[in-house]
Design a protein that fits this description.
The chain contains 15 helices and no strands. By secondary structure, it is mainly α. It folds into two domains: about 150 residues, Serine Threonine Protein Phosphatase 5, Tetratricopeptide repeat (Alpha Horseshoe); about 100 residues, Tetratricopeptide repeat domain (Serine Threonine Protein Phosphatase 5, Tetratricopeptide repeat, Alpha Horseshoe). The protein is elongated, with a radius of gyration of 24 Å. It starts with a helix and ends in a 6-residue tail after the last helix.
Length: about 260
């Protein structure tokens, strides 16, 4: 998601018209240089170029300046600084949903969870249309200790995007955290029925099933996963653990022995 958002923002900036060259040597456009450095993955150098710009100069596009600076600092893991620049970009009129998401991401990484929610609220309907916004909102509520609000955010997101795997997975994990094992099991079965379920998905569903008190059913699910993903070490380990917990150590040993063919130590 992060790479796609960065590419989209930079492409938008790249499409801005460039003035015709004057007879004298033109002044270096540091914003263009910074955008090029960002596209090339040179985030530290981009930040240094942007630091040389006077943001109060009349010729500076404030929205663009703060957006580029925010992107550079986000990649450099200066989350507070990145968030402040994204806030300034929004104040300057850059209301693209991607910038709102980047602001929310920066605040989340900085541990400022209530500000994540405030940022997403600021984005309005265009941001609410994105599955990632509901996921961030739920994670922020969860980290802030408000599990009921986190669950509500996930339910809202799933009502809009019922097949969004990340939202389904997060909801199952939250239900497990809340010790609502039967509810987690029911959601997990729906999660597994969707197309393209991965080995990790099977492991998650089996864990929800096991914690709901259906250990034998969890073993069946993991055996199916082993047939689909015979090279998955995570499936093999989960299945072996399930057999041990069910009092079948010999079956666990067989699973691990077979897995060792693909993952020799």
């Amino acid at each position: 998601m992060a790479a796609a958002l960065l590419a989209g923002l930079l492409l938008g900036f790249a499409l801005r018209p460039v003035p015709a060259a004057a007879e004298e040597e033109p002044e270096v456009d540091r914003l263009e240089v910074a955008a090029l450095l960002l596209r090339d993955g040179q985030y530290g150098r981009a930040a240094k170029v942007l630091a040389e710009i006077d943001p109060e100069a009349e010729s500076v596009d404030q929205a663009r300046y703060h957006t580029l600076y925010g992107l550079a600092l986000l990649e450099e893991k200066d989350f507070d600084g990145a968030g402040d620049h994204f806030e300034a970009a929004l104040d300057a009129g850059a209301m693209q949903p991607q910038i709102v998401l980047r602001l929310a991401q920066a605040r989340f990484e900085a541990g400022r969870y209530r500000e994540v929610i405030a940022a997403l609220d600021r984005g309005g309907a265009p941001v609410d249309a994105l599955p990632a916004a509901h996921l961030l909102r739920a994670q922020a509520y969860w980290r802030a200790g408000d599990t009921a609000a986190a669950y509500a955010a996930l339910e809202t997101g799933l009502a809009r995007h019922p097949d969004e795997a990340r939202l389904l997975e997060q909801e199952i994990l939250l239900l497990l955290e809340m010790k609502l094992f039967q509810a987690a099991r029911a959601k997990a079965e729906r999660f597994l029925r969707r197309a393209g379920a991965s080995a990790d998905d099977f492991v998650l569903v089996a864990e929800a099933t096991r914690r709901a008190g259906a250990a034998d059913e969890a073993i069946v699910q993991l055996e199916e996963a082993r047939l689909r993903f015979p090279r998955s070490e995570r499936v093999a380990v989960a299945l072996a653990r399930a057999y041990v917990e069910a009092g079948r150590p010999l079956a666990a040993a067989v699973v691990l022995q077979e897995a060792s063919r693909f993952h020799p130590r």
